[in-house]
What does this fold into?
Amino acid sequence: MLFFTQCFGAVLDLIHLRFQHYKAKRVFSAAGQLVCVVNPTHNLKYVSGRRAVAANAPEQGGCPQRHATHLPRPPRPHPRPPPRPHRPRPQGAPPCTCPLFSCAWEGRLEVVLPHLRQAHRVGVLQGAEIVFLATDVHLPAPADWITVHSCLGHHFLLVLRKQERHQGHPQFFATMMLIGTPSQADGFTYRLELSASHRRLKWEAAPRSVLEGVDAVITDGDCLVLSTPLAQLFADDGGLAIGIAITAAEACSSQAGM
Amino acid sequence: MLFFTQCFGAVLDLIHLRFQHYKAKRVFSAAGQLVCVVNPTHNLKYVSGRRAVAANAPEQGGCPQRHATHLPRPPRPHPRPPPRPHRPRPQGAPPCTCPLFSCAWEGRLEVVLPHLRQAHRVGVLQGAEIVFLATDVHLPAPADWITVHSCLGHHFLLVLRKQERHQGHPQFFATMMLIGTPSQADGFTYRLELSASHRRLKWEAAPRSVLEGVDAVITDGDCLVLSTPLAQLFADDGGLAIGIAITAAEACSSQAGM
It folds into this structure.
């Protein structure tokens, strides 16, 4: 009986996944583009003091496999966390914080990717052009949707964050960060594109280094910002599809490790 | 002596204008594009009751001539106005409100353009591709920058509004509205584009009818939204250059009066 129940659950998951995949393909009709279904990572806890918790994996989220999907855990009531410091850290052997809002991990740049893969089960996608499909965007803030792209000889982190910068008015912030130094990040350009009937929104910029922190990028306004009504105009059945493209900046392509 | 002072003032104005024009051309390098320098219209007064004040012209702003520039009046202290109603009005011979935040005028659709030209000295530009250069974007909210474009057989109104939807956090909202009915507006597409070093932001949508009101468009999120930090990333010496393009939507071009 348990076996049949599990089978039924798996079939339901597959149907749900198939539907979401179809939606993303309908929105971005370019043939051959990968679609990554990304589930939210809720702010289940927040440790205000910075301490190394690299092996701790309390959150569930990310994109462990390209077409895997998970039901998000319901958000627990919690006190509002204090704001993170959002200025870039000193450059001399800098500690790097986890890009997830809910995680207090910090460590060296070289171990950010292992931390994301092991602690948050974030999968690494190959390809410079991908459709990022964030699910359940109607869930309350704060929440993160993240995925890692491996292309052009580097790893890039796409972060979509739902956050209330102004009380009672959640917004979405989308940015691409290089798992590398700021000077390496200057060698690339990324593009985010949302498309719905009669509407299109494109953002193009150089990625920021993951060393600078997501908070600094949001505070600087150096990202794609969507109000909740605008996100609803682009969303389809709780899913927000964002087309992503990464290219090497012309002047710097030779130094970018291509 | 007075004559020489006036001449000197005129020369300074011309130098300032030339500088702004050069900046806009540098940002948008496409040859042959018109540049419209648009000054802010401050919310000097607000009449909460709706009454016809068509002949009244207390505000100074708009783009009276293509390359004219004016010093904006300093904003006077005033109580925060009550929010305007922002739902579309009934379609049966609907009254149309003035798109300027500071003006309480209302009248029929056919007299919106004469009102804007006479009461607010808004000039009409010919051409489907124009660079809209809003000056003094650092001035406090609320403020409007507007201009009218005549192309494809219709008149389009570009509105850039600086407004505090959330206390203490002014934002910029840019939208294109057709001086026509909603069904006529569906026949067109407009594109707004901001560009600065390593950053580009594009918004493409169908214009909304001026009958629906600017407030409804902002509340629906159906416009380009810039936070103050993001606007600062694109601004250059207090000027915000927005490239504008209007096209007839493919399916409706035959009915759009081309």
